[in-house]
Design goal:
A hairpin with a 6-residue loop joins strand 21 and strand 22. The protein has 999 residues and is an alpha/beta fold. Helix 5 packs across helix 6, helix 13 packs antiparallel against helix 28 and helix 15 packs across helix 16. The protein has a six-stranded parallel sheet with strand order 3-2-4-5-1-6, with helices on both faces. A six-stranded parallel sheet has the order 7-14-13-8-12-9, sandwiched between helices. The protein has 40 helices and 22 strands.
Length: 999
Amino acid sequence: MGADRRRDPAVFTIPPEAPFLDSLAAGLWRDAKEDQAALARMTVVLPTRRAARGLAEAFLRLTEGRPLLLPRTIALAEAADEGVILAGLEAPPPAVGALRRQAALARLVLAKERAAGVASADHAFRLAGELATLLDEMAREEADPARLADAAEAAHAEHWLKTIAFLEIVTSHWPRWLADNGLADPAARLVALLESRRRHWERSPPESPVIAAGSTGGIPAVGRLLATVARLPAGAVVLPGLDLDMDAAAWEAIGESHPQAGLKRLLGRLGVAREEVRPWPGAGASGAFAARARVVSRMMLPAEGMGDWRRVEREAVRAGIAGLGRIDAADQNEEALVIALAMRAALETPGRRAALVTPDRALAARVSAALARFGIRADDSAGRPLGATPPGVYLRLLVTACAERLAPVPLLALLKHPLASGGMRPGRFRAAVRLFELALLRGQRPAPGIAGLEAAYAHAARLAREHRPRGLAAAARVIEALKRSLGPLLAALEVSEAPPARLLAATLAAAEALAATDTAPGARQLWAQEAGEAAAARMAEALEALEHMGPIPPESWPGLFEALFAGVEVRLRRIGSAGEGAPHPRLFIWGVLEARLQSAELVILGGLNEGTWPAAVDPGPWMSRPMRTRFGLASPEAAIGEAAHDVALALSSAPEMLLTRARRVDGAPTVPSRWLVRLDAFLESQLGPGDHLRPPADWLGIARALDAPDCVTPEPRAEPRPPLALRPKRLSVTEVERLLRDPFEIYAKHILGLRRLPELDEPIDRSDWGTVVHAAIASALRRMRKEGWPGVATFRHWIEEQGARSLEALAAPAREAFWRPRLARIAKWVAEAEERRLAEEGPVESFAEVKGELALPGGFVLHGRADRIDRLADGTLRLIDYKTGTIPPQKEIEEAYAIQLPLEAAMAERGAFAEVGRGIASHLAYWKLGGGFKPGAKTPVKGDAAALAAAAWERFEALRARFDDPSAAYWPRPHPHRAPQFSDYLHLARVEEWGGGDD
């Protein structure tokens, strides 16, 4: 590798079983004859910055920490950004920023879509991202746009003509835009930089050594540059993990998805036969690692080479899988915990490093969370998505809340975010928001916007009078803060169209205003720390980029704003952010790209499910696989081959390797990765059936035992026995029936004082429908008492009129549209029934919604409201209960379980209803008012009404006596078959637990 004016290509490989960067460092140090000055004169070209850092760390390991002058390193993949490859040369035009390009492309897409009548700004922005990807692919693969028309298959020619017409954006309009603005596409600029460097080195070969290491030459420009480096007087190319042992027939047969496919393609670009590639000096590995590499090589053989499976000795296979373990977890959480436990255990050995390699960012996040349980933060190469950081979440919540016009759920999500302070002390603002929620947002949704909140406040103030003044005062402060901070943005979203840059500026102003505290401006709060700095930089870039996009309808703004965060990661500094510890120096989480060329004593390959690793093959939205090939783009299967190479290298080189997957992801069953399936098949063919990849520790058992209790003692049924002084002395008729069926509910409601908190955005339900029907009929009956019978048509109109007012007050147009016809049918049925009753009985006194109250010995008060009581000609009473739901069975009435109506009759007998006067019931009836095909039905209660009333009163007195005994417990649901169908207190009584039901 010396500077001897050699022109034959110098191509080496470091075998897959050897740690690449450590072997590279050792070889360079040996070639420099351990002379630091000679080493410093070398230039090493590596694929990534992380690989460059890894090489520096490898040199430190080589010298056992002694300082060393290092060779100059160039990160090939980021050469355009760094501007180091072309040092001293004329540079091509600067690269257009990613956001600016997407915004400008979106404007072109919008113009196309508007011409077709299907314009959508957020869709156009995302489609612009797909076009940008296509542009970069075309640039990297050096595909000629003029060949687009030739790519179509005859069967799809008509469809392809439409696609070509749309792709004029990239073939015609976009090049003109770049030329007008003096810019270049990033990938095209990188290709130009690489090509300029190649030509420069060909014209003026450097005398100092140049080593290009670790690249598989994924794009033609890199391949040409490597070919030039290999022929420099002091140049060399070092390939990662070229399989020199595969026989020629198998080598010729490998396809795009094989691990060696990329290297085979690169050798063709280098003009070098595989037999000409030499092992990197000193890069041999121990027998155990070589055996592992042979196992992996045989496992990955194409079909034509599978005959070699039979030629592998069984003992060699056993040696090859030593240190290799596999775990199939039940789900993602269990997989993450298993990985975290294995990584934590690695720290028990001094100097031992552990790394998780996975393309699954959700799994990486779960592992980070599991490690945090042990007080550890791993060095995560991918960082954290900007949209998932505190400022990113806050900004997204703000846009959602404003786009949904301050609907309760998104509004509260925003107001409860730690960055929201509304110009107050943060703690005071949190307390005010909680009171604001209780006072105005629980229950039915207020009308939209600030005006809707103000109307809800005015309504609550009218109802409250002197009640809850503190809550209403806090609500007023929150509304004022919202008006001050979000008002301009809400106004900007009301126009028909607005420039997106103006909407972004209004969004950022609103975010800063709402983030302000009583002592600090919002900008200081929002843009602080690493995540805030990254968000500020992204928003500044977006402000400039969106100037190049035309006006959009405001309803597109949430989708467009969300797209601004796509693909942006925040990398935390190794020293740790505020509130977080520094990443552990021996624990790593690597993405697939970052893991290339890296090594650790324990490597865990996680997320090995088909569709995740490898990812599902996607040719993209523009062309089919054959069309891509004809056009000159890489086959989608090439990405699988690249991923297979990464897996093969990792499997071959780690002293200890753990392969993990989850059997179910998000509740759905998964399929093992094709590489796991191949490995299983290979091992079964060599060693027979069995569990051959047992990990060194039972990580699965440990993970499952970690949170398992020593023993499970079932909780007995609740048996609260409060003191008599705390037991309720006032119950409604409905509550008496509840006391009979579920005493615990009365205990929770009246003794503990617990009430169900209304839901946010609580939907209008059947209870509201029942209230509407009851109120409408009661109003008509009261009016009839004053004015007399008006006739069927008028009586029906009275019911419909009051019902319409009640429905309108619910402010639920969809429900109103459904219920109005039903109400009309009920009104007609009730009016006709009333006319028939008059014809049969003549006029009677009818009382509607009659309140009654009965004071009993011992200070107990029984109260209730009867739907309707008629005093008949003989002086007896008829009680009618309207039901829009289910009517109780006759058997339960006779057994005094359904006692509400008979108990009202007993109260009437005792003079509880002052408006009606004392009287004995002679008739009890239910009116089923559904409003459907059969609008109503009368169901008289069978049996003697007075006797049923007496039985109900006896049951009531027995209940009273029972719960006047201090030893009597308020059991939950003592008779399950008689229990209420619905209850707000089942979870408090833990019925499912002691009742044997599923949680």
